[in-house]
TrEMBL record:
InterPro entries, alphabetized: AAA+_ATPase, ABC1_TM_dom, ABC1_TM_sf, ABC_transporter-like_ATP-bd, ABC_transporter-like_CS, P-loop_NTPase, Type_1_exporter
UniProt keyword ATP-binding, yes or no: yes
Name of the molecule in the record: ABC transporter ATP-binding protein
Native organism: Inconstantimicrobium porci
GO molecular function: ABC-type oligopeptide transporter activity; ATP binding; ATP hydrolysis activity
Transmembrane regions listed in the UniProt entry: 12-35, 55-72, 122-143, 155-173, 239-263, 275-297
ABC transmembrane type-1 domain boundaries: 19-298
Compartment(s): Cell membrane
Domain ABC transporter: 332-566
Keyword ATP-binding tagged: yes
Length: 579
């Protein structure tokens, strides 16, 4: 129903011409048996030869008109359905873009791909094929019934009554098929996601020699899909022969009762002949309604899933009259901030004030909440308690697009698009000139390796930067972040795959070229990467347990000092040996 209200109804004007064409074709089809009746009763029985030419000409005209309008009917219906499906696909894609991070934490890619591809295709089939046939058969049914009642109400009534059990069975079949199609749609998504995950992780599978396990997993999913299809086939084969039998029975009723009416002189032979055509049309309609139930059941399942997405609103949205400053300075404050994912509290009572232009380094054990803390700045997740302020304004009051457009992030997991190196860097800022492209690549220590490739900046790389080393991918991701030239830069463990020397050069470049107002966050594990920061935060179990600059933290002789000692112990020992 939602499909109808949201997509089909607004196209109602486009349906006028194809439906009119359809009606013209159906009128032609419905008139043909009537003309045959006239031929039999008037020309052949009564020998009225003058009518023969006229009736044959009429039959010819009807066929020609039908052929012309059939073209419009088919073609225009196809255009409308393609249009509607395009709108559904675009709406789905646009809607998915609005969802918050946590939605994607709980949803797998294969499932979403199924919604955009298979489910949208089923809706397309329903409209282009199903809806057209439904309207067509409904009109056929109504017109044929009207003519039948006009010719002989007794025989028409008998035929309609004989068709009632078929209609009933069709409805029961649809009810039985619906849940099966829902399960089938779920299973299609499961197959997609199993295949998608395997292909995305194929290197891991091969490295661990887990091909057999993966094949087995896929075969099981496929077997389940097969079983569901078999179940559907069983349901169909339980009902369809019965529907066929009843259909033939209704024909027999018509022949017996019609023959009797002809014998007693209630109807002419021509009427009986016309009736046999009309009843075949009615039976054809009933069969078609039966077949359409399958498609309708399939469509119901797919449309339900599509509308679950389309009707969902993101939990993180900008308010009306939100804050949209022209420039962002980068003053960031966390006030009593706590964060919870599902049921787990991962940040507890965080308080920090970071003046614009500071460089903040975050250290801490794995899982201590470093990424989670940084995720709050762009409002990728909402706080449980407290508030995060950027330039003195709670980020919940900010226009999300303005806030995020003024930030650059390098995530822990590097993702590169299947595109050229230049386009990957320009992803964050399409406006940058070729000179700036070179400049940010140099800053990110990526220029030398890019220019050593045969196609340089035009080199095509795979979705995951195939053909590039981990460190090269990270450097491209950093160049992409720098290209945005924003006043908030977040590097979440972005140099972990670089050797110490490259990391040192890169961080030095960042410091030297840094726009003095840019606030920079660096999550790092090496003292050499963090020691020059204005503020160093040390995190443990969702708390900031130490903060200060390098000297202050060394004096505290706490967590930071211990790491410093561990990392520089070898150096000190070596120094003492040399001395
Ligand atoms: N999207 C998420 N959904 C649920 N729990 C999460 C999510 N992201 C992180 N966590 C959990 O939150 C805690 C903090 O994770 P976070 O990634 O912030 O730590 P981290 O200090 O950045 O770790 P690492 O140094 O290993 O990257 C962990 O216990 C982690 O399991």
């Amino acid at each position: 129903m939602e499909l109808f209200n949201k997509y089909i109804r607004k196209h109602y004007k486009s349906f006028i011409i194809p439906i009119l064409s359809m009606i013209i074709c159906i009128i032609g089809d419905t008139l043909s048996p009537y003309i045959q009746k006239l031929l039999l009763d008037n020309v052949f029985s009564k020998g009225n030869a003058s009518l023969l030419g006229k009736l044959l000409l009429l039959l010819f005209i009807i066929s020609a008109v039908k052929a012309i309008f059939a073209y419009y009917k088919e073609y225009l219906f196809d255009i409308i359905s393609a249009d509607i499906t395009r709108s559904i696909r675009s709406d789905l894609f646009k809607k998915i873009q609005t969802f918050e991070f946590s939605y994607f934490d709980n949803m797998n890619t294969g499932e979403l791909m199924s919604r955009i591809s298979e489910d949208a295709d089923i809706v397309w089939q329903t409209i282009s094929f199903g809806l057209r046939l439904f309207i067509e058969n409904l009109i056929y049914f109504l017109l044929s019934s009207i003519v039948m009642f006009y010719l002989s109400w007794k025989l028409a009534l008998a035929c309609i009554v004989a068709l009632i059990p078929i209609a009933y069975l069709t409805i029961v079949l649809q009810k039985k098929l619906s849940p099966n199609y829902e399960a089938l749609s779920d299973q299609t998504a499961e197959i997609n996601s199993t295949a998608q995950q395997n292909i995305a992780g194929v290197r891991l599978v091969k490295a661990f020699a887990r091909e057999k396990h993966e094949i087995l997993k896929f075969l099981n999913t496929n077997k389940e899909y097969y079983s569901l299809n078999m179940k559907l086939a069983r349901t169909n084969s339980n009902f369809l022969p019965l529907i066929d039998f009843l259909t033939n029975l209704s024909l027999a009723v018509m022949v017996i009762f019609g023959g009797y009416l002809a014998i007693v002189g209630d109807i002419t032979l021509g009427t009986l002949l016309a009736f046999s055509s009309y009843i075949l049309t009615l039976v054809g309609c009933m069969k078609m309604f039966g077949n359409l139930t399958t498609l309708l059941a399939q469509n119901k399942a797919s449309a339900k899933k599509i509308f679950t997405i389309l009707n969902r609103d993101s939990n993180i949205v900008s308010n009306n009259d939100c804050y949209k400053p022209k420039t962002v300075k980068g003053h960031i404050e966390f006030k009593n901030v706590s964060l919870k994912y599902n049921n787990e509290v991962v940040l507890n009572n965080i308080n920090i004030d970071i003046p614009a232009g500071s460089t903040v380094a975050i250290m801490g054990t794995t899982g201590s909440g470093k990424t989670s803390l940084l995720n709050l700045i762009g409002r990728y997740y909402d706080v449980l308690d407290g508030e995060v302020l950027v330039d003195g304004v709670n980020i919940k009051k900010w226009d999300l697009n303005t806030l995020r457009s003024n930030m650059s992030v390098v995530f822990q997991d590097t993702f590169l698009f299947s595109d050229t190196i230049a386009n990957n860097i320009r992803f964050s800022n399409e406006e940058i000139s070729d000179e700036e492209l070179v400049k940010v690549s140099k800053e990110a220590c990526a220029y030398n390796f890019i220019t050593s490739l045969n196609d340089g900046f035009d080199t095509l790389i795979g979705e995951r930067g195939l053909g590039l080393s981990g460190g090269q991918k990270q450097r491209l991701a950093i160049a992409r972040a720098l290209a945005r030239k924003s006043n908030i830069l977040i590097l979440d463990d972005a140099t972990s795959a670089l050797d110490m020397e490259t990391e040192f050069t890169l961080l030095k470049n960042l410091k030297e070229n840094k726009n003095s107002e840019a606030t920079t966050f660096i999550v790092g594990h090496r003292i050499s990467a963090v020691k020059d920061a204005d503020i160093i935060l040390f995190m443990e179990n969702g708390h900031i347990v130490e903060s200060g600059n390098h000297e202050q933290l060394l004096k505290k002789k706490g967590y930071y000092y211990n790491i410093y000692k561990d990392q520089f112990k070898d150096f000190d020992e070596l120094e003492s040996e040399v001395v």
